[in-house]
Amino acid sequence: MKYILKIIVFIWLPLLSHTQQANTDSLRNALKKTADGPARYRISRDIYSVYEESNRDSALYYADQGLLIAQRSHQKNAEAMSLSNKAYQLTQLGRFADALQCLQQAFIIAEDPRTEKDPYWDVSTLGFKGNNRLLALSYAHHMFAILMFRTENTEQQIFHFKEAGRIGTEIGYLPRMILANMNLGQSYLLINKLDSALLYENEASRLQSKSPFEKYAGHIRMSLGDIYAAMGEQSLALQHYYSGLASVIKWNNQGVRSRIFLRLSKYHLASGNKDSALYYSTQNLAAIQSMGAVAGSETNIGIGYEYMYLSYQLNQRFDSAYKYQSLAMTAKDSLNKVKIRNITDFQNLTFREQIRLREVEKERTAYQNKIRTYLLLGGIALLLLFALFFYRNTRQKHKAKIKIEKAYDDLKATQQQLIQSEKMASLGELTAGIAHEIQNPLNFINNFSEVNKELLIEMNDEIEKGNYTEVKAIAKDVTDNQGKINHHGKRADAIVKGMLQHSRAGSGQKEPTDINALCDEYLRLAYHGLRAKDKTFNAKIETDFDGSIGKINVVTQDIGRVVLNLITNAFYAAPLSPKGGFRGSDYSHEPTVWVSTKKEGNKIIITVRDNGPGIPANILDKIFQPFFTTKPTGQGTGLGLSLSYDIIKAHGGKLKVESKEGEGSEFIIQLPV
C-alpha cells in the first residue's frame, strides 16, 4: 500500500501543482480587470479557496481583498463571510486576539436581521440561493469554534460547532452540515468520548458522499482513522489514513496532508519500520515548511524536526538525529514563546472586553437612575405645587405635609443604606468562600511546578550522561505533573469565572441553569465564607439533589442570591439554642443544614432546612416583610427574605416557610419548569 501511495505522490502532485498554478494565474488576471461588485468578490473568494489550506499568508491576503470589496460595495453578508475567512487564517497563524476581533465584527453583522435586505451576492464556494445572513452566522460560529479549539476551551468549541451545524441544517446547506459533524467528531475525540466521536464523523462521511463538496473528504478519513486508532483498531486506522492521503493530495490540503504524514510516521516509528518512518517524517516536514510554522498547532516546524530526529535515531544515523534534535528544541522553544504571547494577547483582549461590557452596563444603570431621579424630582415639584395651592386653606395641613416629606426622604435614605449593607454582607461571605476554595488548586499548582523544576534539572543531567531511558521516564513524570497543573489551573479558572459571574450586575435575562450545581456551589461557598469569618463555626451538611431536574430557565444571578441568602440564614440559625444565643456546652446538639431539590410535575422544589430554634408562631407571618429581622441589632437588615420573596415571585414561583419552635425551620422554593 505504501509503495502505491508513493507512486501517487510523485506522479499526481506535479500535475496538480501545474494545473492549480495555471488556474490561479487566470483568476488573478481576471481580478485585476474586474470592477468592484459580486463578480469581483466571487473571484477573490475563489482564489482564497485555492490557498485556504495550502498557503496561510496568501489566503490571508485574499481574505482581506474580499473584505475590502464587500466594504466598498456596502455588502454586509459578504463582509461577514470575509471577516470569518480572515479570522480562520489568523487563528491558524496563532494570532488569536486579532482573530477574535474579526469574529466579533462578523457576529455583529450576521446577527442583525436588517442585513437580509441586502442585494443577493453569491457568498458561498458552491453556490447558495438561501438566507445569506444565516449562512454567514453559521460560518462565524464555525470559525469561533476553531478559535476555541486553538485556545483550549473545549466546552465552547463543542457548543459553537453544534450551533453552526444547527443553522446549516435550518437553511439546508450541506457543506455547513458536513463540516460541523466532521469537527464535532474531532471535538468528542479530544475528550475521549469515542462513541459520540464516531457517530458524528460517520454522519459527516455519509453527508459528504451525497455532496460534490469533496475538499474535506480527506480530513474526514483522517478523523475516522484517529478514532479507530484510539479504539485500538490500527488496521482500520491505517486504511482511513491512506484513503485520506490520496484525497488531500488531490485537493492540495497541506495542513491535513502534514497531519496524516505525522500519524503514519508515528505508526512506523512504533512498529520499528525504519525506511517508512523516515519517508513519512520527511514528507511531513516538507508539507509543514510549505505552509510555515504555527505555534501550538499539530503542524508546527518543531514537531516536524522532532520526528525527523526520532526517525534518524531509529535508522542509527546519529549525526542527522542530533542535528534535528537541536533544531527541534530550538524551534519548540521559539514557537512556545510565540504561543504564550498569542494566548496572553487573546486573554488580555477578552478581559478588556469584559471590562468594556461592565462599563457599558454601569453607564446604562447610571442613565436609568438619572431618569428615575428626574421623575422623582418632577413628582416632588408636583407635590410642592399642590402644597402651595392648599397652603392658603390651612397652615396645619402645610406643616403636616412638610413632616411627611421629611420622613419620606429619611426612609428612602435609610432604605438605600440597608440595601447596600445587605449586598455587601452577602458579597463578603461569598468572597471569603471563594478565597478558601481557590487556595487549594493554587497550592497544587505551586507544588507540582516546583517538582517539575527539579525533574527538568535532573533530566538535563541525564541527557548529558546519555541515559535516554531515564530521560524518557523523567519526561513522562513532567508530562503527568503538567497535566495536574493544567487540571488544577482550570479548577481555579472556573472558580474565578464563577466569582465574576456573581459580581456582574444581573441582566434580567433568563438562561438554562443547572439548579443542582447552583445549590451545591452556593452551599459550599456560604459554609466557607462563615468559616473564614469565625474559625470556631462548624455545621453538618446534608444534600439530596434530584438528578432528573436538568436545566431550567431562570435569571441565574437572582436565584443564586436567593439560595445563598436562605443557606446563610440556615447556617446562622442551626447553632442557636431555643431561647436564643449559642448552645455553648450543649454537645448533644449537632448544628445541621439540609439542602435538597426535587421535580414534582411541572414544578421544581428547592428546600433549605436547619435544626435551629425555629421561628415563633406569632411572627411567622411577618418574616417576609421588609426590614423585619429576628437577628440582634446590627447583625441583619431585614431585607434578605423580602428581596428573596420578590425574586421568586418575579419568576412565577412561591417562597414558603414551615417552622416548629425548638425543632428548626424549613424554607421551600417552588419554581415553574
What order do the helices and strands come in, and which of them pair?
Elements: H1 2-33, H2 38-51, H3 56-72, H4 76-92, H5 96-110, H6 132-150, H7 154-171, H8 174-190, H9 194-209, H10 217-230, H11 234-251, H12 254-271, H13 274-291, H14 301-314, H15 318-391, H16 395-465, H17 468-503, E1 511-514, H18 515-533, E2 540-544, E3 551-554, H19 556-573, E4 592-600, E5 603-610, H20 640-650, E6 654-660, E7 664-672
Parallel strand pairs: 2-4
Antiparallel strand pairs: 1-3, 4-5, 5-7, 6-7
Short account of what is shown:
With 673 residues, the chain is of the alpha+beta class. It has helices spanning 2-33, 38-51, 56-72, 76-92, 96-110, 132-150, 154-171, 174-190, 194-209, 217-230, 234-251, 254-271, 274-291, 301-314, 318-391, 395-465, 468-503, 515-533, 556-573, 640-650, and strands at residues 511-514, 540-544, 551-554, 592-600, 603-610, 654-660, 664-672.
CATH architecture verdict of the domain at 511-672: 2-Layer Sandwich
- Proportion of helical residues: over 70%
Mean pLDDT: 80
Q: Could you tell me the strand content as a percent range? A: 5-15%
Rounded radius of gyration (Å)? 33 Å
Number of helices: 20
- Strand tally is 7
**What would the CATH topology of the domain at 511-672 be?**
Heat Shock Protein 90
Give the N-to-C terminal Cα separation: 59 Å
Low-confidence stretches: 1-18
**What do we call the CATH homologous superfamily of the domain at 511-672?**
Histidine kinase-like ATPase, C-terminal domain
Tell me the series of helices and strands, N- to C-terminal.
Answer: HHHHHHHHHHHHHHHHHEHEEHEEHEE
Strand order of the largest sheet: 2-4-5-7-6
Please identify the structural class as seen in this structure.
alpha+beta
Strand count, sense and barrel status of the largest sheet are: 5 strands, mixed
Reading off the top of the CATH hierarchy, the class of the domain at 511-672 is best stated as Alpha Beta
